[in-house]
Write a structure and sequence with these properties.
heterodimer; A: 294 residues; Uridine Diphospho-n-acetylenolpyruvylglucosamine Reductase, domain 2; Enolase-like, domain 1; 3 domains; four-stranded antiparallel β-sheet; globular; B: alpha+beta; Ubiquitin-like (UB roll); five-stranded mixed β-sheet; 7 helices
């Protein structure tokens, strides 16, 4: 159906945007790519009094490497831009592997990095990828800018630490360390559907192929993307290989507060998480090739 | 409570400059259909899932139902009504009035890639943008490229074949 009526503002600067948020408080919603918010409005799951459109704010869509080898991506960078970026392909292999799995090309042409992270859908890829990549979120409030590691940003179902007057302005992806490997697996009924369960992970291997670090993130299974800390603990100090992948993956559902919905029961998600963690670990260990599509 | 006042927009649609006065919540799809009477763009789900409303904005395929008309101010929009004129091979003939269908549209017809036709405008717009970015797609790339467009009639196989055939004919220049 059609959205309920709302006012609309398209500020040209961040300070103008902040002024609007200050003025309207909880009555305002930020509009980025619109690929999550517009369906919410059309289904009348929310009816804000005013939309503050970020698409005309200058300076939120940069994509550049830093001298330290980090990658800076503005919040308004379209996910399609991330998908086609040679810089991302070269410097952030996990992000590069995951982006083609986000919905469909028409969604990626408008949807943004910042919008996806701020919306915090439990089945979204980017929150999990940001967590597994040790990314830092850059957030601008009326009182100044703060930075927060991705793994501390997501607080619950569609919940983040963003205060009503705050705007996510960018993400910093740390330089990819030598020896870091990634894995990404997602299961959905059709390509482009919301993930039933997905896994985004990075592991660090030393020259003897011992695991020295791991960030294993399961998404779609609970109210937020979650670090599978039991899997990570089982990996540290162990030699990479099929036996380790199988043994560590078995812990994927330890303490997992799985959710059930129309797509799948909580029990199904608890069953699926270890299977996908094992597959993602095999990818990271170089023992299997990732699927390009499903 | 009174409704928000209408605001002016000015954009190009199918090569022509158009103006309108739009309520903030009016979607681009509704603007095209209701204000410009370009009803080739269809509304299926109105929440971004089905792809029937896909149009081209600044060369990119997007969901018309997920953009506000206000957001299209200053943009270059192409709908199914204007796709034929954009055909790299047939476009000039279409502009001269000597042809009506693009190579891609002919290929859809030849391969029976439409039955009821409801998904077709969105499907053709998507395929047009796909081939503009990737003139030699594999069958798998075509399937991935149209994954955001639902069809209830054809089973997709003739659509994929039509797009692959059109790609080849476009590469051959005829």
């Amino acid at each position: 159906m059609k959205a309920a009526a709302f006012e609309y503002a398209a500020p040209r600067s961040l300070s103008e945007a902040h002024a609007l948020l200050r003025e309207h408080g909880e009555d305002a919603r930020l509009l980025a790519g619109g690929q999550s918010l517009m369906p919410v409005l059309a289904l009348r799951l929310a009816s804000p009094a005013i939309l503050v459109d970020l698409n005309r704010v200058a300076g939120l869509d940069e994509l550049r490497g830093t001298s330290a080898g980090d990658l800076l991506t503005g919040a308004m960078v379209r996910t399609r831009t991330l998908e086609l970026s040679a810089e991302v392909a070269r410097t952030q292999p996990l992000l590069h592997a995951a982006v083609p799995w986000i919905a469909h090309v028409q969604i990626r042409n408008r949807g943004t990095l910042g919008g996806s992270l701020s919306h915090a859908d439990p089945a979204a890829e980017l929150p999990a990828v940001a967590m597994a990549s040790d990314a830092t979120l850059i957030i601008a409030g009326a009182r100044g800018t703060r930075e927060q590691p991705a793994h501390a940003f997501f607080t619950g179902l569609f919940g983040t630490t963003l205060a009503p007057d705050e705007i996510l302005t960018g993400v910093r992806w740390p330089a990819w360390p030598t020896g870091r490997r990634h894995g990404f697996v997602e299961v959905a009924r059709r390509h482009g559907d919301y993930a039933i369960v997905g896994v985004a992970l990075t592991v660090d291997l030393d020259p003897d192929r011992l695991v020295t670090g791991a960030r294993v993130v399961v998404f779609g299974a609970a109210d937020t993307a979650v670090r599978a800390t039991a899997v990570e603990a089982a990996l540290i100090g162990q030699p990479a290989g099929e036996p380790l992948a199988a043994a560590a993956a078995g812990h994927a559902s330890d303490g997992l507060d799985a959710r059930g919905d129309l797509q799948a029961s909580a029990e199904y998600r608890r069953e699926l998480a270890p299977v996908l963690v094992r597959r993602a670990l095999l990818q990271a260990f170089g023992l299997s090739a990732p699927r390009a599509s499903r | 409570m009174s409704l928000p006042a209408a605001r002016p927009i000015r954009l190009r649609v199918n090569g022509e400059t158009v103006e309108g006065q739009v309520e903030p919540r009016l979607t681009l799809a509704d603007f095209l259909r209701e204000h410009l009477r370009l009803t080739g763009t269809h509304l299926g789900c109105e929440h971004g899932v089905c792809g029937a409303c896909t149009v081209l904005v600044d060369g990119r395929s997007v969901r018309g139902c997920l953009m506000l008309a206000l957001q299209a101010d200053g943009a270059e929009v192409v709908t199914i009504e204007g796709i034929a004129a954009r055909c790299p091979v047939r476009g000039e003939a279409v502009a001269r009035g000597e042809a009506t269908l693009s190579i891609l549209q002919e290929s859809f017809r030849d391969h029976h890639a439409l039955q009821c036709g409801f998904c077709t405008p969105g499907m053709v717009a998507t395929a047009h943008a796909l081939l503009a970015e990737n003139p030699a797609p594999s069958a798998e790339e075509v399937r991935l490229g149209i994954s955001g467009n639902l069809c209830r009639c054809t089973g997709y196989v003739p659509i994929v074949e039509a797009i692959l055939d059109a790609a080849q004919r476009l590469r051959e220049g005829a």
